[in-house]
Design goal:
The protein has 1886 residues and is mainly beta. It contains nine helices and 141 strands.
């Protein structure tokens, strides 16, 4: 550890200082970016020694020293190399996690920081160069860099970096102007030299060099321009000291001061040409690449002119055509994209909003890429060569590359970067990004597209760079420099830095950047802008939009490569372009796949042998088997030893122990001779030699291959248990019994001990070659270091520290009880071990399990005769019993093997020969001249003469002593003919199941498969649960005990009151809770496994067994005292009055309970006189007996849904039984070790139980009872147990989530749920709400003078009850005989009518004091039936005087006749106010018989009348379903109870054959009816839904009415339920709204208000508003006489229109009231329905279905549905008709109805000449007269159709009623079920 720390600290310091033993600049640059040098470039540290040559010179794989000994690299224990900066960073980068071990005392400084020796603080390297003397010796400061800027850069005062050439150029590049300080020109009389030094002009040419650069002593000193131009090549100017030479444009003065050299404009920091540049003497010339043409002499433009811009805006991607300016949306997106990319070749578009998305042109929708895996993405860029997408995530600090089809992605760079902008340059194989480093340092960096050769190109800390983009033609990067408001550029190698200032205006916030055709494209908050670098102030606005990202779209931006490096087939998945790799690319695989040398990615492949076959198994990244392939099969069993993959050899041993190998999977097999049989072997891949163990396991052998020379490397008298070969490190490891782990080199030398530990014979070991780590198991557990709260046993097992020295041996090696204090005296029932002194239970003596350390409990036991049970077989020794089905099963189970003695010889396979002795031989050994059978029966006979003829046998033919014999290959058997082989269905063999879960038969074989959550084991037969470790949860007295079934870790979860004992427990994985119960504590409690917080669920109960419903989220328990099964919500909080429900009662001593929430079923056992196991739905439904035979005392049950079985423990018979879940296939497993089983559990292929007598937890194989093991053996008494694992509580959606129960929802069969109520509450009619008994549904039995109330919950549906159930009565002393009642539940208002009276009276039951009647209705005749609108308060009734349906307000006011036409003998009426529907029964005419009985319905305002049924004889007792969609009634004439939908469909008979049927009513899930027999005995019958049979009780008196009520049935709302719907008098609801009605003598003036009529004398008539009388001559005379203008509406007769029209006189309009004006200006009455009143009848016109819309005044009016939309946009007023007519809307068109003097479409034509007018008037008058007569006739017919008159109108209408009646009869379809099509109306006929 100390060496590691010093190495890390030393390497960190050296790396930071840039001196790691190498002096090359390339090495320093690589160290700076956390990489290692590879020639002149860099590679990632992870590439070192990874088995693949990435460096061209191969130095990366010269691995004599780990990770090349590079100080920048850290070697993981598994051999992988990682950067030292990744050590101890909190993330495991090594697969084995070795980089995060022992990190507590270690501080690792990142690459750009250093650490002084002995100090833990990390500092920036340059901080020590600025006066911080943190290191005492100052050694670090001596090596500090002068600047953190790159070479060729100058560090500003603000630590920004600018080019050296930018100093003193007149531009503030630093931002703090420090680059322009000390740049002032020299004063007058001085001359500048030495880069800023000023000297006196007199010192020029004085013969002494005053400037160190010699510029003061030029060769032109003393010369004159007049002589030979002063010697200057260019222009010459005279000075006092000589001549000053200069040069013309394109040339520059040379250092000699007189000559001119050519200026290479093409090599300037930013050249003058847009693309290609060629220098010429004194000038340059520009050119363009293919596909471009020169423009303006310097710029290049594309030739095809097809330039587009891909734009991301708010919630859409769009494309803008550059030349035309046309913008089109490409695809809508979810939010505002932050980055976009495209692939022109593949028609794909990518963007980032909340996730990474891809859209392929031509497909309907976009799809997210890796939606569940990726962190937030900052920037994306496309490699158009390979089609792979690159993205950067600053939050995850990673750059990734992924396949655009979603098959996988890889991380290119990670950790040591924070990438913000990203672009890729496939042509150069590099990518570029803006990186945010530590301390706010920002850089532009580059790396190969495979992550190699990372370098820093520029430090841009103060620039706030954004919009990084690439011009791949010129090889330049561009970005926006935020604070300077400029655009910066440099070449992709970091040179050629240049700036374009003045691009942006002040406070402009640019977004995105693209460069194309030497133009800049960017966006601000509202615009997309283009500008030229040469003229930045000249802007072109391309689009007005809020753009978030943009990219130029043109084929030249993604040029196709002629010679693509990544040719198809190079890599199966990702092909990363590489500037380093010798191939030019690098194949990589997504996580979970492995790269093969061929470039293909493959799953992990495992080769294993099973029986005679060799299999290849593909394993996914999640560890699940993907595919299994049979690769080789042999005649005998084979045992795979090892594979030499380098030479393609497979080694195995056969049944005889001979060593065999074959070349490949199907090559020739060859045996290697060895002196001993071989049981274990390992191949040295480097040499091909074998290291192996003989079957006596006493030596380690080495055999050279090829050849057969063997050598003994090591021998011992012990047994060598395991041999492991680490061939890369040339080391052998082995374990022998009684000794520690040892190792030696491959030559047998250098033997040493590696690790001390205890090893069992069944220890399984494996060697991880990559990490040189050894893994081993003990009883299935992988050794690991125990935590601080655990005790480590000597064998490596971990148990809780609380179990150390607790008197119980929890370690398998008992080491937790060694060295502990010894008890002086043992408790009662225990005995002390004589030598070791500990106490053990008396039951543990001589139980064949050593419990004393000294072993004395199993000594001197002797053999004691043991009586065997009825299901056991007695071994020959007499002291052992085994289950009877173990006898002769082919395995010796008795200690004396007597269970297999005398058994019939096993049946030989069809490929074997049976000897006379019963032994089986392979047919190849028969008739071979050698006697192999003990009796020689395999030879002789017809061996010499028998020969197989061709085609004789289906598979194989062999000679035998009895003649030729046909044989089949394994997996087939001979048919009765003895020649044809047929497939054996191994899955249905009676011998047993070959698979632990699912068996699939195949031709000649079978395949085992596992259920979800399980993985097929290496044997190909066993399924093991995946995921977390399964935990055994067991109650041991007052402790909740945990034991890992894999790791064997043991711990105590909780300790309860020591006076109690936990009998039952269960768990809920979702909430991580454990629940437990003790009957004596009378409560159920819970504890959180995560926080150890505990609480109580319910108290005051006596739970025997508790079970968790993890799907329905309920807890069930058995109450043995009450013989009930109960349930409560898991989240309940224990209170005195807990809300739990009784699921089932009437049980007989229930003992155990098990749930199957996936199927909604529960199972329980009963231990009464007739013990049985029953099944029911988890809601108590569908109860049935499952098992009632062979049971003694079933104490516990457990379900195994995988095998579709139920298991139980039987304390009486000392066995464990099982049966199929349908009750069949009962079997018993009686083991001697099962003494007193208490609780049972099933997991995988094993069954577990707790035993009270032996105080153990044991397990056996669930189907055979074998492989028994004792898991826990403690002095404490074990009770309940469960196995905790996610496969036992699979997630599933609960059907209860969609029901909305008010209290509890219990699962039921067929994936349903049902609501249940806590004790004391009842389920209401809606099936959802729980109410008290007083709020539940009840029935009123109306007797002549008594009202009897019975709650329906009190009606038993099981046992028959003869007398009236529990009830309440209300007697009436002042009533002769009741006829009908109705009841408002909430108001407790009882309405009733009496026989032979016309009154309806009210009795308010909730008023205090003496109850008193109140007369509400006083009509004519006897009230035969009535119904209350419990929402609006109106009363509907039928009386015997007139066949009408009447309605009045709640106080009996404003009575009107609602329906009268075609009513003959209505007897009952029923309402459903929430849907505004009423129905009635009409017995028809009793005299002529022309009109039979009918069931009719209408809206509650009388409209929409329908006939539903015409076949009943005497319908009574109409009732609605709760939803109001179906109506029920009883037919007393036919003895039927019937129902039908309100649309006339789905008629059905609900009950038939009801004799003496009298009355009927229905409630929620219950129907009630009464019968009166010949003896006048009245019975009340009831039938509950889903319960077969009818029950009844007898009533002494006659029942005159029967009604059902509940508070929930009288809920809802309609248009009249609030404020009387705005009506002044009566509000009648309909399904679409309401109708306001007025009583007799009133009229409706505004649709809401009723006003009283004035009384007019004959022949006067009343205005429509009822306020004025006018004469007949005043109607339609052109003058408004009524206040509402109604006298001038609908005037069709021209003779009534005077020459001076009202429409021509504005003053006439002024006299109208607002209502009248509105009425007159309205369209012809196409929508309004005028309700008839006495003495007035207004026409009704209704042309289309109506809908209600609010008007401007807030009230509802009726408008035509089709015109509704158009009316909103087409105002219809008088202005439309030029004030010369009325405007009407017909369909979607507005039309004018002009005054007679005017014409034209808009009444625009002036009046004609008088003669013409009179002629026209005469013609129109004649036509109008005819129309008026027709209209009058039509008016009367419509009037009778819709009139709502009072009884005073009967005489008036008598004459017309006959016509109306006949019309209705002719238009009603009389059939058995009312036609779903609406009946034809009179309007349709007209």
């Amino acid at each position: 550890m100390r060496c590691r720390m010093l190495l890390l600290l030393f390497s960190s310091v050296l790396v930071s200082l840039g001196s790691v033993g190498h002096s090359r600049a390339g090495e320093l640059e690589c160290n700076r970016t956390g990489q290692v040098a590879c020639g002149e470039k860099c590679i990632p540290v992870a590439w070192l020694c990874n088995g693949e040559q990435e460096c061209p010179d191969g130095t990366d794989e010269q691995c004599e020293e780990t990770c090349l000994g590079h100080l920048q690299a850290w070697p993981c224990d598994d051999g992988k190399c990682i950067p030292t900066s990744w050590l101890c960073d909190g993330t495991s980068d090594c697969l084995d996690g070795s980089d995060e071990v022992n990190c507590e005392s270690l501080t690792i400084c990142p690459d750009d920081k250093i650490q002084c020796p002995g100090k833990s603080q990390c500092r920036d390297a340059w901080e020590h160069c600025e006066g911080h003397q943190d290191c005492e010796d100052g050694s670090i400061q001596a090596h500090c860099p002068h600047s953190h800027c790159l070479a060729g850069q100058w560090q500003c005062r603000n630590r920004a970096c600018v080019l050296d050439s930018w100093r003193c150029d007149g531009i503030d590049h630093c931002g703090d102007a420090s680059d322009e300080e000390d740049c002032a020109s020299c004063p007058e009389g001085t001359v500048r030299c030495d880069g800023g030094k000023c000297i006196a002009a007199s010192l020029m040419c004085d013969g002494e060099a005053d400037c160190t650069d010699g510029t003061d002593e030029l060769s032109t000193c003393g010369r004159n321009c007049s002589l030979l131009n002063g010697g200057c090549e260019g222009p010459c100017s005279d000075t006092h000291w000589g001549v000053q030479c200069s040069c013309t444009s394109g040339w520059q003065l040379q250092p000699d001061g007189w000559s001119c050299g050519d200026v290479d404009e093409c090599s300037l920091a930013y050249g003058p040409c847009g693309q290609l540049c060629q220098n010429t003497p004194g000038s340059y010339s520009c050119g363009c690449i293919q596909g471009h043409q020169l423009y303006n002499g310097t710029d290049c433009r594309v030739t095809d002119d097809d330039v587009k811009i891909l734009i991301a805006a708010d919630k859409e991607l769009g494309i803008l055509h550059r030349r035309t300016g046309v913008y089109k949306m490409l695809i809508p997106v979810q939010s505002r994209p932050s980055s976009i990319a495209y692939d022109l070749n593949r028609n794909m578009y990518f963007w980032v909003d909340k996730v990474l998305n891809v859209f392929t042109f031509g497909k309907p929708n976009s799809v997210p890429l890796y939606p569940a895996e990726l962190p937030p993405v900052s920037s994306i860029s496309l490699d158009w060569v390979t089609g792979q997408l690159y993205w950067a995530s600053s939050s995850a600090r990673v750059i990734c590359a992924g396949l655009s089809d979603g098959r996988g992605y890889v991380k290119i760079l990670e950790k040591d970067l924070v990438p913000e902008e990203l672009v890729v340059f496939p042509t150069k194989k590099y990518l570029y990004w803006v990186n945010r480093g530590k301390n706010g340092v920002k850089t532009v960096e580059t790396a190969g597209m495979d992550g190699s050769d990372r370098k820093v190109l520029a430090v841009v800390t103060t620039e706030e760079p954004l919009g990084l983009t690439l011009d791949h033609v010129t090889g330049r990067l561009y970005w926006i420099r935020g604070y300077k408001e400029s655009i910066e550029t440099m070449k992709v190698d970091g040179s050629g830095r240049y700036a374009f200032p003045g691009i942006f205006v002040e406070d402009e916030d640019p977004v995105g950047l693209a460069v194309f055709e030497n133009a800049f494209f960017w966006a601000n908050q509202t615009q997309l802008i283009c500008t030229s670098p040469s003229s930045p102030k000249e802007r072109e606005v391309l689009l007005h939009a809020s753009v978030s990202a943009l990219s130029v779209l043109h084929k030249s931006q993604q040029p196709k490569s002629r010679h693509s490096t990544c040719v198809p087939g190079s890599c199966s998945h990702l092909c990363l372009l590489s500037p380093i790799h010798p191939k030019g690319y690098k194949c990589v695989c997504p996580e979970g796949l492995f790269l093969l040398p061929s470039g293909k990615c493959s799953e992990l492949k495992v080769v294993f042998s099973s029986g005679k076959r060799l299999y290849l198994l593909k394993v996914s990244s999640m560890g699940t088997a993907v595919e299994r392939t049979l690769v080789e099969e042999h005649a005998g069993n084979l045992y795979l030893l090892d594979i030499d993959w380098k030479r393609n050899f497979i080694y195995w041993s056969n049944a005889q122990g001979h060593l065999v190998y074959s070349a490949g999977y199907s090559g020739q097999k060859q045996q290697i001779w060895t002196q001993h049989t071989v049981c274990s072997a390992n191949v040295d891949i480097s040499t091909g030699n074998l290291f192996w163990l003989p079957c006596d396991r006493g030596t380690i052998q080495k055999t050279k291959v090829p050849g057969t020379d063997s050598y003994t490397l090591y021998s011992t008298h012990n047994i060598i248990l395991q041999l492991l070969l680490d061939w890369p490190r040339r080391v052998l490891y082995w374990v022998e019994s009684g000794k520690p782990l040892q190792s030696m080199t491959l030559d047998g030398k250098t033997r040493q001990e590696v690790w001390r530990g205890t090893w069992a014979a069944d220890t399984q070991m494996a060697l991880d070659l990559g990490s040189a780590s050894i893994l081993w198991t003990t009883k299935g557990f992988v050794h690991e270091k125990c935590s601080s709260s655990e005790f480590q046993c000597e064998n490596g097992q971990c148990v809780s520290s609380s179990l150390h020295c607790d008197g119980n041996r929890d370690c398998l090696d008992h080491s937790d009880e060694e060295g502990c204090p010894v008890a002086l005296q043992c408790p009662e029932g225990e005995m002390k071990c004589p030598k070791s002194g500990e106490c053990v239970l008396a039951e543990w003596i001589c139980d064949h399990d050593v419990d004393c350390k000294d072993g004395t409990d199993e000594k001197d036991c002797g053999s004691k005769a043991l009586p065997c049970g009825p299901r056991q077989w007695a071994c020959g020794s007499g002291d052992q019993c085994v289950p009877d089905f173990w006898h002769c099963d082919g395995q010796s189970d008795c200690r004396d093997s007597s269970d297999e003695a005398g058994c019939a010889p096993r049946k030989c396979a069809d490929s074997e020969f049976r000897c006379a002795t019963g032994a089986c031989l392979r047919f190849s050994m028969v008739c071979d001249g050698r006697e192999d059978c003990a009796d020689g029966s395999d030879e002789g006979g017809e061996c010499s003469t028998s020969a197989c003829s061709p085609g004789q046998c289906y598979h194989s033919c062999y000679p035998s002593p009895t003649g030729p014999v046909c044989a089949c290959v394994p997996g087939f058997e001979l048919e009765s003919s003895g020649q044809i082989c047929q497939d054996v269905n191994e899955c249905q063999q009676p011998a047993g199941r070959p698979c632990s879960q699912t068996c699939i038969n195949t031709e000649g074989s079978y395949i085992c498969a596992c259920h979800p959550g399980y993985l097929l084991g290496p044997d190909g037969h066993t399924c093991k649960a995946t995921g977390a470790e399964p935990i055994l949860l067991v109650a041991i007295e007052f402790n909740l005990f945990l034991s890992g079934l894999r790791s064997l870790k043991e711990d105590i979860l909780a300790t309860t009151d020591k006076r109690l004992a936990i009998h039952s427990l269960d768990y809920d994985l979702e909430d991580q809770k454990v629940f437990w119960a003790d009957p004596n504590a009378e409560s159920i409690r819970w504890i959180s496994m995560a926080t150890k917080k505990d609480g109580m669920v319910v108290r005051g109960i006596k739970p025997e067994c508790i079970v968790v419903d993890w799907i329905g989220r309920n807890l069930y328990w058995i109450d043995g005292r009450a013989d009930q099964i109960l349930a409560i919500q898991l989240t309940a909080v224990g209170r005195e009055n807990s809300e739990y429900t009784v699921v089932l009662d009437d049980l007989i001593q229930p003992q155990s309970l098990a749930l199957d929430p996936l199927n909604g079923l529960m199972y329980w056992s009963e231990i009464g006189e007739e013990p049985q196991i029953e099944q029911a739905g988890m809601d108590g439904s569908s109860r049935k007996i499952l098992v009632n035979q062979g049971l003694g005392r079933p104490t516990s049950i457990a379900l195994d849904l995988l095998s579709w079985k139920i298991f139980w423990s039987d304390e009486k018979f000392h066995c464990i039984g099982s049966a199929n879940l349908d009750g069949s296939g009962i079997s018993m497993m009686q083991l001697t070790e099962i003494k007193s089983p208490f609780s049972v559990a099933v997991f995988e292929d094993e069954i577990f139980w707790s035993d009270l007598k032996t105080r153990t937890i044991q397990r056996v194989e669930k189907m055979t009872g074998k492989d028994r093991a004792v898991l826990i053996k403690r002095s404490g008494q074990p009770f309940g147990l469960k196995i905790m694992h996610e496969v036992l509580q699979p997630r599933s959606s609960s059907p209860c989530l969609d029901i909305g129960c008010s209290h509890l929802c219990l699962l039921s069969p067929r994936a349903k749920g049902s609501c249940h109520c806590p004790v004391g509450l009842l389920l209401a009619d809606d099936g959802i709400t729980c109410v008290s008994l007083q709020e539940s549904e009840f029935v009123f039995l109306v007797l002549p003078t008594v009202l009897t109330q019975i709650y329906l919950k009190n009606l038993k549906t099981t046992a028959q009850q003869m007398t009236v159930p529990e009830h309440r009565t209300l007697p009436f002393t002042s009533v002769n005989q009741l006829a009908s009642v109705d009841y408002l539940v909430q108001e407790k208002a009882l309405y009733l009518s009496e026989l032979n009276t016309s009154d309806i009276r009210l009795l308010r039951l909730k008023e205090p004091g003496i109850l008193s009647w109140r007369r509400i209705i006083s009509g004519k005749g006897t009230v035969t039936d009535f119904a209350l609108d419990w929402l609006g308060g109106n009363i509907y009734w039928i009386d015997s005087e007139n066949p009408h349906i009447n309605v009045a307000s709640s106080k009996g006011q404003y009575p009107i006749v609602l329906l009268s036409e075609n009513l003959h003998h209505p007897t009952s009426v029923v309402l459903h106010p929430p849907t505004a529907v009423m129905c009635w029964a009409d017995l028809g005419s009793q005299d002529d018989g022309r009109h039979g009985s009918s069931i009719e319905c209408a809206s509650m305002d009388g409209s929409r009348r329908k006939t539903l049924w015409l076949k009943s004889q005497a319908p009574v007792g109409l009732a609605f379903s709760d939803s109001g969609t179906r109506v029920y009634w009883a037919d007393t004439g036919q003895g039927l109870i019937q129902s039908i939908q309100l649309d006339g469909s789905r008629y059905r008979v609900d009950h038939q054959g009801v004799k003496d049927l009298h009355l009927f009513a229905c409630g929620q899930d219950m129907m009630l009816w009464t019968t009166v027999d010949d003896a006048q005995i009245t019975k009340v019958w009831y039938s509950k839904a889903r319960v077969s049979g009818n029950q009844w009780f007898q009533v002494d008196q006659k029942i005159v009415d029967l009604k059902v009520y509940s508070i929930l049935r009288q809920q809802g709302n309609n248009s009249c339920s609030k404020d009387n719907g705005g009506c002044s008098h009566i509000c009648l609801p309909n399904p679409e709204g309401k109708t306001c009605r007025c009583p007799s003598g009133h009229c409706l003036v505004d649709g809401h208000t009723c006003v009283e009529f004035v009384q007019c004398s004959t022949p006067s008539q009343c205005c429509k508003d009822g306020q004025k009388c006018i004469s007949m001559e005043q109607v339609c005379n052109g003058h408004v006489d009524c206040l509402d203008g109604s006298d001038e509406v609908d005037c069709m007769n021209p003779g009534k229109i005077h020459s001076t029209s009202i429409l021509e006189k504005p003053e006439a309009w002024e006299r109208l009231t607002p209502e009248a004006s509105k009425l007159f200006r309205a369209t012809e009455s196409t929508t309004g329905v005028y309700l008839e009143q006495e003495g007035m009848r207004h026409p009704v016109r209704k042309t289309r279905p109506e809908s209600k819309v609010p008007t401007t005044k807030g009230r509802e009016e009726t408008v035509q549905t089709e015109d509704l939309q158009e009316a909103k946009h087409m105002p219809c007023s008088q202005d439309f008709c030029n004030g010369r007519g009325t405007c009407t809307v017909e369909g979607k068109l507005r039309r004018c109805r002009c005054l007679l003097e005017y014409g034209g479409e808009f009444c625009q034509e002036a009046p004609h000449s008088p003669g013409t007018v009179y002629v026209a008037l005469s013609a129109v008058a004649a036509l109008a007269a005819i129309l008026a007569a027709l209209g009058l006739c039509l008016h009367f017919r419509r009037e009778r159709k819709f009139k709502r008159t009072s009884s005073r109108n009967l005489d008036y209408d008598k004459e017309k009623n006959q016509e109306e009646e006949n019309l209705m009869n002719s238009e009603t379809f009389v059939n058995e079920v009312y036609d779903e099509q609406e009946s034809l109306t009179s309007l349709q006929t007209e």
